[in-house]
Amino acid sequence: MEERPITDWLPLTKKEVEKRGWDELDVILISGDAYVDHPSFGTAVIGRIMESEGLKVGIVAQPNWQDDLRDFKKLGKPKYFFGVTAGCMDSMVNHYTANRRLRSNDSYTPGGEAGFRPDYATTVYSKILKEIYPDVPVLIGGIEASLRRVTHYDYWADKLFPSVLVDSKADMLVYGMGEQPLREIIRGVKSGIPLKDLTHINQVAFLKPKEAALPEVDSWETVSLSSHEDCLVDKIKYAANFKIVEVESNKWQANRITQQVGDQTLVINPPFKTMDEVEMDRSFDLPYTRLPHPKYRKRGPIPAFEMIKFSVNMHRGCFGGCSFCTISAHQGKFIASRSEKSIMKEVDQITKSPDFKGYISDLGGPSANMYKMRGKDESICARCSSPSCIHPVICSNLDTSHKPLTEIYKKVDAHPGIKKAFVGSGVRYDLLVDDFNKNNSDMNHDEYMEQLITRHVSGRLKVAPEHTSDATLRVMRKPSFKYFRKFKEKYDAISAKHGLKQPLIPYFISSHPGCEEVDMANLAAETKDLGFQLEQVQDFTPTPMTVAEVIYYTGVHPYTLQPIYTAKTKEEKQNQNKYFFWYKAEFKDWIRNRLTKLQRPDLAQRLLGFRNRNQKY
Questions:
Q1: Ranges assigned E (strand) in 333-434
Q2: Three-state secondary structure call for residue 29
């Protein structure tokens, strides 16, 4: 393979900057992830967008924050600003399990090594930059900044934090997917406007002195949240705040949000309307090398890249609105889809990779089967403030046709360089159950399922019913488990028809708000009856900017302000988790004794059977 010139990547060192003939950089990006020049990695996307707008951009990837801070100085001082991101994950989710145990690896670091980014990376990086270069603006973004833009509960510290703007001392924050606000910011600074004065741009947040007037924008109305200080002493006010933030985040024509924090006012401008196809293509068609920077070759593969290097992301956003999920909080509930032309162009690029063997690992998105789904009458969407388009029922205005997706699958299948293209992303199964989804007028869901099962399943298919208790599922904003049963019947019938043995792999969560211990025992019994022996299970983690996090901290649902039980102690959480493993000998006595104590011997019988003198369990 002919080696690519180092200038094909954005520069990581002073020497690489000089090779481009540059004396100065316009923007320097600081990232908690290793630099992978691929459209699935936020730092690469942001860097390439800036480059497309004519800026000279450098990257400092995973700087050492514990030495003399030379990494923060090595590229010098940028002309316009520093851009800071913790990376593709919140640094605390990246570092710790649901039990607050330190993880031993980091998928965004060469060799999967842990320890190359700090806790609360956005804040740590930004404060360092402000100390070294007090006169250079700092713009923060990415999922960590986005989900911590307002007063939020931090599970790992077990307390409320103010907006990340307060502790990081950054000048401005971009929330959500950053392409649209970033292009506006770049145009502003290039025209000579200081970053701190670009307060009229959608989808940014900033702090201003309490007594200073709000910037005037004719089309914006303003709603106020309870202050950070009020939230510290009143959990109900914190819960009520969340509802306002979530509703405004999911509107096309949203209001500006303000919150008092000490002697400052936090201002969160309304989001942009979801990117259209042209904008999406523009972002994905930038000149990525699709490879990690060559400096990492001797340090081992980057696990997150290895997982997606032969995959194609076809859309963004999710209209599910699940209570525990941050996808819609960051990417939005409206689906932003790429054109078929852009997708097929990326497939072509993948087939030309020297180590490609003909297998695409994923044709997907946050939910694999939401491609090109949107409102039939978008004027209705423009007035909607619901956080979900499919809970408690599927909106009659939602076009849930799987036809465009089925056609993409067929075109990729027909590509001469492709042997197989798999769907590795989770499939939203409830969209495929006609009893739940009444919008399937031309039976295209059946055609999609046939295509998916016969051509695009790599041994097994991932779906996420998440629970079996209807009460818990309502809190989760997920459909009744009966629809999963119906989907499984349909899946099994198509598999049998074609002689395929491709098991369904269902994902479930323990200790979610609204889930009692008996609900977990019942989940184990119901899944046992369906023939599942669960191995991959997830204990609930309260992540910022989710309904479930608010319930965990406050004890009430933010929309009703009514109490909801949540398992919080280590013992309560472990008790729920143990029922997943009813088939393991070491848990059987515990489960029988526990269910007897809970006066549910019927569940013990379903899980473990009768016990007699000749049978231990």
A1: 336-337, 359-360, 362-364, 374-375, 398-399, 420-421
A2: strand
Among 169, 202, 170, 164, smallest CA distance to 185 is for 202
Contact residues for 41 (Cβ-Cβ < 8 A; gap 6+): 33, 35, 88, 304, 305
Beta bridge partners of 311: 362
Separation between Cα atoms, residue 166 and residue 149, nearest integer Å: 9
515 annotated as belonging to a binding site for a ligand? no
pTM of the model: 0.95
pLDDT in tens, 112-151: 999 999 999 999 999 999 999 999 999 999 999 999 999 9
For tokens 């956080």, the residue is 387
- Cα angle 322-324-328, degrees, rounded to a multiple of 5: 55
- Extract long-range pairs of 251-256: CB within 8 Å, 24+ residues apart: 251/384, 251/385, 252/334, 252/381, 252/382, 252/384, 253/382, 255/220, 255/221, 255/222, 255/223, 256/214, 256/217, 256/220, 256/221, 256/222, 256/223
Question: 61 in helix, strand or coil?
Answer: strand
Residue that the structure tokens 């199964």 belong to? 429
Q: Is 205 in contact with 140 (CB distance < 8 Å)?
A: no
pLDDT for 489-516, tens place per residue? 999 999 999 999 999 999 999 999 999 9
Pick from 261, 194, 251, 197: which is nearest to 220 by CA? 251
322 marked ligand binding residue:
yes
Q: Is 325 annotated as a binding residue?
A: yes
What stretches of 325-399 show up as alpha helix (H) in DSSP?
A: 327-331, 340-351, 378-383
Could you tell me the pLDDT band of residue 614, with boundaries at 50, 70 and 90?
Answer: very low
- Give the span between the Cα atoms of 321 and 432, in whole angstroms: 18
Q: What pLDDT, in 10s, does the model give residues 55-105?
A: 999 999 999 999 999 999 999 999 999 999 999 999 999 999 999 999 999
DSSP state of 437: -
For 344-396, the pLDDT digits (tens) are 999 999 999 999 999 999 999 999 999 999 999 999 999 999 999 999 999 99
Q: What's the pLDDT score for residue 254?
A: 94
